[in-house]
């Protein structure tokens, strides 16, 4: 009798320890703690809920069940490395770390381990050059696109002329925040606006001096590359100094509900970019509600559904799932490997018809990926916060970046990386 | 019974002064070394190397360095993160400027550069002490991080401000860069840990170490009996920074491969290393290892227990981790203010008497 229980326990232990190898393993390097948790939590909820929906509705992707392995990084690179190392052995198919710092960290490692990374609208911009970064993808848009979209929007606002205008960039003093500087410098030389740079140190709660400087210099526009608690503080500080909010534009990581609600009515009129549309009435949300949340499988507390970053997390999951489906189609097997998923990503094509079929019509732009171009279309929309109704209102349709500025920059930066690391550019 | 001096005869002064006077200790030391050098490299995998052993070894070097300054010489420093950054950036500049020179030499040189910077920031210690010195070293911390963020020469003008280690070989095997095998990563750290620990141990029981301890225990008295405070304090800063610089260079080049100064070498790092030596035991080489092990391995163990074994949500485990580590720190400081090293010392005292305590 006792032997039997022991054997059963050992068996149960062995089963829980050794995962069924047929699963599609998706690591979720999330952060639900620390100063960036406000952004990390809804993204991760959306990411997991979508995969859970696929499991509940379709039995996974192509009949293969999906297994999510969550690992808490706290937006910290050391923990990110630990998470990467602890999850890669489980047969991870794709990494989406939602952190530019961790992305820089794992790009070389994942390239050696041959696991694709998808950094949607973050990470290393020059990874758009697929011939150098074979294993890294950053479709549908990257930071340099965002900088260019912002400037194009401002050009449109000002009748095509920005000469003599003063634009300040408030940025997170890290690899993430420094990414757009090179593009903005280029654009400032091209369009004749004056660019001033104001760095905010991690985690971003101290911004008094930066905003004092803005108050003194009175720039015409303030652009922001912020994340986590920095966004809330910046919006509050801008409201405190009475900066006209409609001239304050954040990038797509500085434009979620939780960034503006703490400032209350003062945040009204604040603008930000977005790479996906927000529409709480999308059919996919109803499906998640009935098949995932009502079944008690919601990730987190289930309160974030439909918010900006939840939607983006779900969008990221959808792009990953579509890439896996594409890989299954290309290779004719359902139990794909990481290398096959890379092929799926390199041949991914997202059409409006497909998005509508998935119940998320118009959520993102149509784009296609190729072996050379991992960057997608680079489109972004400008949205504005309406504090009275507590919602983001899209002001524009998708705005295209100025590829004539960005493409040479990407070519130069990726060539430098290739030279540094002895990479012979070419398709796999 | 087994653990005692009796029967272990010393016939020379050298034998009498050895680090481990008891035979069992010597055996234990050599067994540990044998396991570390001859067994672990053959069984190590990527996860064990990059999540546990490599950070443990690197933090142990940093903790030894800070322990020399704070534990042996009594100068409180909050600049460890900044000095690690000096080591990392020095190593990066050397690696990229002189790609043909062996990385081992670069790491030692990075330590040397950090020693000079550390000695320069140690100058105020001649005038100020205690909390005031802590604030002065805090200034070093913030100044150095600011410097490496501001001056783009230090990161070779890269757009992101990140530095990333190119691949470098030692005896034909990559020790930096992504294709480094786990055992090579581990062995290079183990090599530096072993050398640093032996140097530190022998420095601290020689003339120079005694002058540090004299300054720590009472600087005026030390000065009266002929210890030169200028020399003692500055050598403590230099030697300490040398070790911390080596730790920073390894942290960047071997462990992470790419760092961002504000995040990797911020004030948190200074506190982390300070906690290591406080928990491990001030003024003890063993304590540096124990403290590093405690603060590196415990969070990973708790995470493994909570997430992989118990299946709890990751955020809950991350929060619990903070609570448990914090509670354990308080518990140890109340129960044993002299750290884990003192517990070890007491255990050894008891063992000597066992099984016939009087």
TrEMBL record, chain A:
Pfam family, one: Peripla_BP_6
Domain Leucine-binding protein span(s) in chain numbering: 29-365
UniProt-listed SUPFAM superfamilies: Periplasmic binding protein-like I
Source superkingdom: Bacteria
Keywords from the named record: Signal
InterPro entries linked: Leu-bd (IPR028081), Peripla_BP_I (IPR028082)
Keyword RNA-binding: no
Signal peptide: 1-22
Family (UniProt): Belongs to the leucine-binding protein family.
Name of the protein: Amino acid/amide ABC transporter substrate-binding protein (HAAT family)
Gene source species: Yoonia maricola
From TrEMBL, chain B:
Ranges in coiled-coil conformation: none
Superkingdom to which the source organism belongs: Bacteria
Location in the cell: Cell membrane
Keywords: Cell membrane, Membrane, Transmembrane, Transmembrane helix
Any matching Pfam family: BPD_transp_2
Annotated source species: Yoonia maricola
Upper taxonomic lineage: Bacteria, Pseudomonadati, Pseudomonadota, Alphaproteobacteria, Rhodobacterales
Name used for this protein in its record: Amino acid/amide ABC transporter membrane protein 2 (HAAT family)
Membrane topology of this protein: Multi-pass membrane protein
Cellular-component GO terms for this entry: plasma membrane
Transmembrane segments: 27-44, 50-69, 101-123, 130-148, 183-200, 236-259, 271-296, 316-334
First-listed, main subcellular location of the protein, grouped into a coarse class: membrane
Classification via PANTHER family: ABC TRANSPORTER PERMEASE PROTEIN (PTHR30482:SF5), HIGH-AFFINITY BRANCHED-CHAIN AMINO ACID TRANSPORT SYSTEM PERMEASE (PTHR30482)
GO MF terms, alphabetically ordered: branched-chain amino acid transmembrane transporter activity
């Amino acid at each position: 009798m006792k032997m039997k229980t022991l054997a059963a326990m050992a068996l149960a232990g062995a089963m829980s320890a050794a995962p069924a190898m047929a699963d599609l393993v998706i690591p979720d390097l999330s952060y639900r703690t620390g100063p960036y948790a406000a952004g990390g939590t809804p993204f991760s909820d959306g990411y997991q809920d979508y995969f859970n929906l696929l499991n509940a509705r379709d039995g996974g992707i192509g009949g293969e069940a999906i297994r999510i392995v969550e690992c808490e990084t706290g937006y910290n690179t050391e923990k990110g490395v630990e998470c990467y190392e602890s999850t890669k052995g489980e047969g991870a198919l794709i990494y989406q770390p939602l952190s530019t710092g961790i992305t820089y960290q794992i790009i070389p490692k994942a390239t050696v381990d041959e696991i694709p990374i998808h950094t949607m609208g973050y990470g290393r911009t020059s990874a758009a050059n697929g011939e150098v970064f074979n294993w890294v993808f950053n479709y549908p848009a990257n930071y340099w696109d965002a900088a260019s979209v912002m400037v194009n929007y401002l050009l449109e606002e000002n009748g095509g002329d920005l000469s003599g205008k003063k634009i300040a960039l408030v940025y997170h003093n890290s690899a993430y925040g420094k990414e757009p500087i090179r593009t903005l410098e280029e654009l400032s030389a091209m369009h004749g606006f004056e660019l001033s740079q104001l760095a905010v140190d991690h985690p971003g709660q101290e911004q008094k001096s930066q905003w004092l400087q803005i108050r003194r210099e009175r720039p015409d526009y303030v652009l922001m590359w912020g994340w986590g608690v920095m966004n809330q503080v910046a919006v509050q500080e801008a409201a405190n100094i009475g900066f006209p909010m409609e001239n304050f534009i954040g990038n797509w990581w500085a434009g979620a509900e939780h960034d503006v609600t703490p400032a209350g009515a003062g945040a009204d009129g604040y603008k930000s970019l977005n790479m996906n549309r927000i529409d709480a009435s999308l059919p996919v949300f109803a499906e998640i509600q009935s098949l995932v949340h009502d079944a008690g499988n919601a990730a987190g507390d289930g309160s974030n559904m439909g918010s900006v970053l939840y939607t983006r997390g779900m969008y990221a999951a959808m792009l990953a799932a579509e890439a896996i489906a594409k890989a299954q189609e290309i290779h004719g097997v359902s139990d794909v490997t990481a290398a096959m998923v890379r092929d799926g990503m390199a041949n991914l094509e997202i059409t409006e018809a497909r998005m509508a079929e998935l119940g998320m019509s118009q959520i993102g732009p149509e784009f296609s990926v190729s072996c050379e171009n991992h960057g997608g279309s680079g489109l972004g929309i400008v949205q504005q916060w309406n504090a009275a109704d507590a919602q983001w209102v899209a002001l524009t349709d998708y705005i295209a970046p100025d590829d004539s500025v960005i493409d040479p920059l990407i070519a130069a930066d990726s060539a430098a990386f290739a030279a540094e690391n002895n990479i012979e550019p070419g398709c796999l | 019974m087994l653990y005692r001096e009796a029967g272990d005869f010393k016939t020379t002064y050298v034998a009498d002064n050895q680090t481990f006077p008891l035979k069992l200790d010597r055996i234990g030391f050599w067994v540990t070394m044998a396991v570390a050098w001859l067994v672990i490299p053959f069984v190590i995998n990527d996860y064990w190397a990059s999540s546990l052993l490599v950070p443990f070894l690197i933090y142990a070097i940093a903790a030894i360095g800070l322990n020399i300054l704070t534990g042996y010489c009594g100068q409180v420093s909050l600049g460890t993160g900044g000095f690690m950054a000096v080591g990392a950036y020095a190593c990066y500049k050397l690696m990229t400027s002189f790609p043909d020179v062996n990385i081992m030499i670069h790491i030692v040189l990075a330590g040397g550069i950090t020693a000079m910077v550390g000695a320069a920031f140690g100058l105020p210690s001649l005038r100020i002490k205690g909390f005031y010195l802590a604030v002065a070293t805090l200034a070093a911390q913030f100044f150095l991080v600011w410097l490496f963020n501001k001056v783009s020469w230090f990161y070779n003008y890269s757009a992101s401000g990140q530095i990333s280690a190119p691949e470098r070989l030692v005896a034909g095997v990559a020790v930096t860069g992504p294709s480094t095998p786990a055992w090579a990563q581990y062995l290079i750290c183990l090599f530096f840990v072993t050398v640093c620990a032996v140097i530190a141990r022998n420095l601290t029981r020689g003339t120079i170490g005694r002058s540090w301890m004299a300054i720590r225990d009472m600087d005026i008295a030390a000065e009266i009996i002929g210890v030169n405070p200028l020399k003692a304090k500055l050598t403590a800063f230099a030697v300490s920074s040398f070790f911390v610089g080596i730790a920073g260079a390894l942290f960047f080049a071997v462990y992470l491969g790419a760092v961002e100064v504000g995040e990797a070498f911020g004030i948190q790092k200074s506190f982390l290393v300070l906690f290591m030596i406080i928990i491990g035991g001030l003024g003890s080489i063993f304590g540096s290892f124990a403290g590093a092990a405690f603060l590196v391995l415990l969070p990973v163990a708790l995470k493994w227990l909570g997430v992989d074994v118990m299946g709890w949500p990751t955020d809950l485990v991350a929060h619990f981790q903070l609570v448990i580590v914090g509670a354990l720190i308080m518990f140890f400081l109340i129960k044993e203010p002299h750290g884990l090293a003192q517990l070890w010392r007491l255990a050894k005292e008891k063992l000597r008497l066992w099984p016939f305590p009087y």
